Amino acid sequence: MDQQGAVAFVLGLAQEHHQADVDLVLQRGENLTLRVFNGQVEKIDQATALGLGIRVVQDGRTGIAYTERLAPEAIERAFVAAWENAQLNDPTEVMLPSAPGAVPDPETLGLYNPALEAVTVADLETFGLEIEAAARAADARVTSVPGLVVSRSNSEYRVVSTHGVAYYQRQNAIGASCSVLLEDRGSRKSGRYGWSQREWDPSRSHEIGTLAVAKGADLLHASPIPGGQVPVVLDEYCAPQLLSIYFGCFSGDAAQKGQSRLKGKLGEVIADASFNLTDDPHRIGASGSCYVDAEGTPTQPLPLITDGQFSNFLYHIESARRDGRESTGHAGRGYTGGIGTSRHNTVMPTGAYTLDELIALPERCLLITQLEGAAGCQPLSGDISIGVQGFWVENGQRRQAVDSVTIAGNFFEVLKSIRARGNFYQPNLTSMYIPPLLIEGLVISS
């Protein structure tokens, strides 16, 4: 049974069983991945995932089940399981939304490029081998290229309900990740560069390999620096990476469960007056874009922080009803599970500075170009403790490569301590549009 047939079959079962409140998500994903090592393709993986998740709401009770087979008997078993589960669960605040009005064509979001489907295994193989060759040729100190992966992916997502919701969206991408090891006079360092786009450009192979090497070469012979409280600049990769750890605090559901320090702070000043943050589901080409969320609620740009003031929580239907509000269109759901809160594209406006100009603003600062795990970061409390690598900067000049240091502070204080922003975002496909940031108040320890 094809996807449209499976959807029609579920709606037919809902009618047959006199269930007026039923919705479903249907997901399909394909990934083609090649691993390159020592001048040859070491492994080719091609994986396809397909699944149908069914939700039945009966007398305020919600039941969920799923199947990975689109055969009539498998779909019917999943439907009956969802129906039976609903009868066993406690009442909730879920009421399925009516069909939205006119919804723009999801193709206008620019998430799918049909030309990528013509990229073959041979194309990816050549691309990967050229990346490896470029990396090895870039620097005599390269001892190995242990991690080189090229990939092509595409996905489809459907949300359908007995209330007339019918939304279909697809997206695809092509990418590469190159990791290298360099050694010089007893110092060893790794470098990595990742590339993810929706345009096939095989000429980028040389750039990917050489940038991976440059990231490692720049940090050879890095050493710790004395501890203390100094300004920190997070580059265009590290700023979104660090801040994303803590953005669960904007979930209304998390606040209701006592898992967000923003509980009870709507309307309060929580950041510098120049700070603005928006969740934008309609950003063209961004990986988190959509016109309808996983429950069928239309999406709209939503301000989270406006001139330093906390403006909105993110809600799905159930969490919104608990607070006497309307869903903000932030329901997320995979076919195997239930509804959760999901952001779309987090956007902080750019500032006025290039990276070189940003690091020249303070007399001294630490420029951070790599983060090392997040085990010491606590999303609930906001505590930050994370190993970093980068450069010690004096008067705008990079004086010393730095490693074996930790930065510490608190996310909610960071929001009040951002002093300047870069004028650009990182170039790859993303849902986190955070520019480089100059932050005061973080503590460095060796």
Secondary structure layout plus pairing:
Layout: H1 3-16, E1 22-37, E2 40-58, E3 61-67, H2 72-88, H3 121-138, E4 142-161, E5 166-184, E6 187-197, H4 205-217, E7 228-229, E8 232-234, H5 238-244, H6 252-256, E9 277-279, E10 302-306, E11 309-310, H7 317-322, E12 331-332, E13 340-341, E14 346-347, H8 355-359, E15 364-372, E16 383-394, E17 397-410, H9 411-414, E18 418-421, E19 432-433, E20 437-439, E21 443-445
Parallel strand pairs: 8-15, 14-19
Antiparallel strand pairs: 1-2, 1-4, 2-3, 4-5, 5-6, 7-21, 8-20, 9-10, 9-14, 10-11, 12-13, 15-16, 16-17, 17-21, 18-20
Helix pairs in contact: 1-2, 3-4
**How many independent structural domains?**
2
* Low-confidence parts: none
Mean pLDDT: 96
User: What string, H for helix and E for strand, traces the elements in order?
Assistant: HEEEHHEEEHEEHHEEEHEEEHEEEHEEEE
Percent of residues in helices: 10-25%
**Main sheet: which strands, in order across?**
7-21-17-16-15-8-20-18
- Biggest pleated sheet: 8 strands, mixed
Number of helices: 9
Number of E-state strands: 21
User: Over all CA atoms, what is the radius of gyration?
Assistant: 24 Å
Taken from the alpha-carbon principal axes, the silhouette is: globular
Assembly type: single chain
Structural class, by secondary structure, is alpha+beta
Structural features, described:
This protein folds into 2 domains: 3-217, PmbA/TldD fold (2-Layer Sandwich), CATH 3.30.2290.10; 222-446, no CATH class. It is 20% helix and 36% strand. It has 9 helices and 21 strands. It has helices spanning 3-16, 72-88, 121-138, 205-217, 238-244, 252-256, 317-322, 355-359, 411-414, and strands at 22-37, 40-58, 61-67, 142-161, 166-184, 187-197, 228-229, 232-234, 277-279, 302-306, 309-310, 331-332, 340-341, 346-347, 364-372, 383-394, 397-410, 418-421, 432-433, 437-439, 443-445. An 8-stranded mixed β-sheet has the order 7-21-17-16-15-8-20-18. Strands 3-2-1-4-5-6 form a 6-stranded antiparallel β-sheet. Strands 11-10-9-14-19 form a 5-stranded mixed β-sheet, with helices on one face. Helix 1 (3-16) packs across helix 2 and helix 3 runs parallel beside helix 4 (205-217). It is globular and about 75 Å long. The relative contact order is 0.13.
